[in-house]
Amino acid sequence: EIESLHRMKTGALLRAPLAAAVLLADAAGPRADALLRLGETLGLAFQVQDDILDAVATADALGKTPGKDQVRGKSTYVTRLGLEAARARLAGLSADIRTILAACGDGSDASGTCLSALVGYILDRRS
What is the DSSP string of 22-70? Predict the structure, then answer.
């Protein structure tokens, strides 16, 4: 349930610009499909990371009050699965993303380098 919600929310939000790029480039085939999967999976990973950070980060690191989700009784990966299982889910999504990113191309051109940097930023963020 929570994963479906996040795929439709943050996953769709990050999939949209990649879908636009695929359309503008008139791309098709495995690379285009991989880009669309990348956006959706990256959005899901972003949300899992956000849930983890809300549970463990300091207010200084986050720039906002941590723990709000738990206080509000919000359903998150951490409240549903526990912290360690949420971290394991993030690790699995990160591995999936790296595999999908490899299917998008070798990353030697400027767009591949930018995409790899964006993926790294989202997966490694601490705030």
Answer: HHHTT--SHHHHHHHHHHHHHHHHHHHHHHHHHHH--HHHHTS-TTHHH
Q: Residue 76: CB partners within 8 Å, gap ≥ 6?
A: 2, 51, 54, 55, 69, 70, 86
Q: Closest Cα to residue 125, out of 59, 47, 65, 67?
A: 47
Least confident stretch, 18-27, 59-68, 116-125 = 59-68
- pLDDT for residue 8: 85
Neighbours of 12 (CB within 10 A): 14
CA distance 10 to 47: 7
Structure tokens at 76: 């998150």
Coil, helix or strand at residue 9: helix
List the one residue out of 59, 64, 45 whose CA is nearest residue 124.
45
pLDDT for position 93: 95
The gap from C-alpha 34 to its chain's centroid, in whole angstroms, comes to 14
**Burial bucket for residue 20 (CB in 10 Å: 0-12, 13-18, 19+):** exposed
